[in-house]
């Protein structure tokens, strides 16, 4: 069973159709004929980037891998530990890239994660340059995609945050999502609309709330589900996880509808 098939199988445990579509959008980037309303609402609010398969899913997947090898934590002094962790991480990331056919944001995240694992003490600016160069050379067709530039813009913004005195992970994440949201609104929204200033203002608030929900509720569950999807099986406690995922998706849809009602 492929990763996509495993995610589709898990999604069958989610009873509500809209919640199921939202899960498949966030976990697999699957745009079905009935998911158009969700993507349109997210685009209108300037938060469509939250649904893109990107570094957020990869970072949570990496966190799951780290926990998986956590039983070796007391042996980190052993010379074998870094190699075991690197093997598990790189194999999982490459498998994910292959399963999702290497979209630009996923490609960027995987290259950066593997590069950082191989060269943990490399200078940040040089590391970013080499990662960008590797992606541009190996996946040159992605240079024609908006997602390539937006992904790198968001990642560079995240790396810039500590230089501005933003140290905490939550603050850095919110800073990145807000800047990305503003750029997306300017690029993709209808600026001729008389409602555009209101859309911008409420879109910023939506990004703050949605960024927290995605980062601390939705993505950790997806990272765990991804791990089992790689093995082609449903995760332990699939029904319980599906109920938790359904509850999170329900909150996201209610919040989205609330903002759409306020703006319209």
Please characterize this protein's 3D structure:
By secondary structure, the protein is an all-alpha fold. It has one domain. The protein has 11 helices and no strands. It has helices at residues 3-11, 17-28, 36-45, 55-68, 81-99, 104-118, 124-138, 146-160, 169-188, 196-230, 238-263. It starts with a helix and ends with a helix. The mean pLDDT is 85.
The secondary structure category is: mainly alpha
Number of strands: 0
Question: How would you describe the shape?
Answer: globular
Cα end-to-end separation = 44 Å
Biggest sheet record: none
Helix content: over 70%
Q: How many structural domains?
A: 1
The helix/strand series, from N terminus to C terminus, equals: HHHHHHHHHHH
Helix segment count? Answer: 11
User: What is the CA-based Rg, rounded?
Assistant: 19 Å
* Poorly predicted runs: none
Give the overall pLDDT as a whole number.
Answer: 85
Approximately how much beta-strand content do the residues carry? Answer: under 5%
């Amino acid at each position: 069973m492929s990763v996509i098939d495993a995610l589709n199988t898990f999604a069958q445990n989610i009873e509500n159709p809209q919640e199921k579509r939202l899960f498949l959008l966030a976990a697999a980037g699957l745009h079905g004929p009935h998911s158009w309303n969700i993507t349109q609402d997210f685009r209108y609010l300037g938060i469509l980037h939250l649904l893109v398969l990107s570094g957020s899913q990869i970072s949570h997947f990496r966190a799951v891998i780290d926990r998986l090898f956590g039983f070796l934590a007391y042996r980190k002094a052993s010379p074998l530990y870094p190699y075991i962790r690197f093997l598990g991480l790189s194999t999982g990331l490459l498998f994910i890239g292959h399963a999702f056919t290497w979209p630009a944001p996923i490609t960027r995240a995987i290259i950066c994660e593997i590069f950082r694992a191989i060269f943990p003490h490399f200078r940040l600016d040089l590391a970013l340059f080499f990662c960008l160069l590797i992606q541009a050379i190996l996946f040159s067709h992605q240079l024609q995609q908006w997602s390539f530039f937006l992904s790198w813009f968001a990642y560079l913004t995240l790396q810039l945050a500590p230089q501005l005195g933003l140290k905490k992970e939550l603050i850095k994440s919110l800073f990145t999502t807000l800047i990305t949201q503003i750029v997306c609104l300017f690029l993709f929204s209808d600026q001729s609309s008389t409602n555009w200033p209101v859309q911008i203002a409420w879109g910023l608030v939506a990004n703050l709330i949605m960024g927290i929900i995605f980062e601390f509720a939705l993505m950790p569950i997806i990272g765990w589900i991804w791990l089992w999807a790689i093995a082609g099986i449903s995760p332990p406690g699939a029904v319980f996880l599906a109920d938790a995922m359904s509850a999170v998706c329900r909150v996201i849809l209610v919040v989205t509808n609330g903002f759409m009602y306020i703006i319209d």
